[in-house]
Specification:
Number of strands: 10
Shape: elongated
Distance between the termini: 21 Å
Number of domains: 2
Low-confidence stretches: none
CATH topology of the largest domain: Ribosomal Protein S5, domain 2
Helix content: 25-40%
CATH superfamily of the largest domain: Impact, N-terminal domain
Structural class: alpha+beta
CATH architecture of the largest domain: 2-Layer Sandwich
């Protein structure tokens, strides 16, 4: 199964532009129903706001958006474009605006809703969902830091480190890169370090 990206968790962000307050909210969802439920919750929570604009993208499903009374194309689409540009799916975003009495114009609104959506996504973080090969990397204390750098440069993710008479670095490797990573570590360690496969998993791992 090909990899894909999702929000790591809940994200919220707030900023003020010319006295208008913009509250951005991002959540992970798996279905359109979950997305619409979250939108309804935000509308209820911020019922006194001028606008509750939203968008969502469901993996292998629909993409939807709403300007919720803002000028057409100034809110929902810019928010959706943030999610598309970042490559995330299974995501819903709601940006609530409390109007401050000063008109921002189409350009100002577009920038504000883009910023609010991006700030909320940044707060949530992004995870990659894919198949990983789990492995142990037994090595000496003197080798550990160099091997960590080499592993990360090859695309492996460093997990826990077990300390004893020697060191065992726990890693995750992208399935298609596992063999090349093993060969690389064997080479840079002059044959003294061999990776030991401990399993496989298909899961989300934070990447940024």
């Amino acid at each position: 199964m090909a990899e894909y990206y999702i929000p790591s968790g809940a994200g919220e962000a707030e900023f003020v532009e010319k006295r208008s307050s913009f509250l951005g909210h991002v959540r992970f969802v798996e279905t359109e129903e979950e997305a619409r439920d979250f939108i309804a919750q935000m509308k209820k929570k911020y019922h006194d706001a001028r606008h509750n604009c939203w968008c969502y993208i469901i993996k292998d499903g629909p993409e939807r958006y709403s300007d919720d009374g803002e000028p057409q194309g100034t809110a929902g689409i810019p928010m959706l474009e943030v999610m598309r540009r970042e490559g995330v799916t299974n995501i819903v975003c709601v940006v609530t605006r409390y109007f401050g009495g000063i008109l921002l114009g189409a350009g100002g609104l577009l920038r504000a809703y883009t910023k609010s959506a991006k700030d909320a996504l940044d707060a949530a973080g992004i995870s990659v969902v894919r198949r990983w090969v789990e492995a142990d990397v037994p090595c000496s204390y003197s080798q550990m830091e160099k091997l960590k750098v080499e592993l990360q440069s090859c695309g492996a993710l460093i997990g826990d480190v077990e300390y004893g008479a020697s060191v065992v670095i726990k890693i995750l490797m992208p399935e298609e890169d596992a063999e090349s990573i093993k060969a690389k570590i064997f080479d840079v360690s002059a044959g003294s370090v061999k990776l030991i496969d401990t399993g496989e998993s298909f899961r989300a791992v934070p990447v940024r």
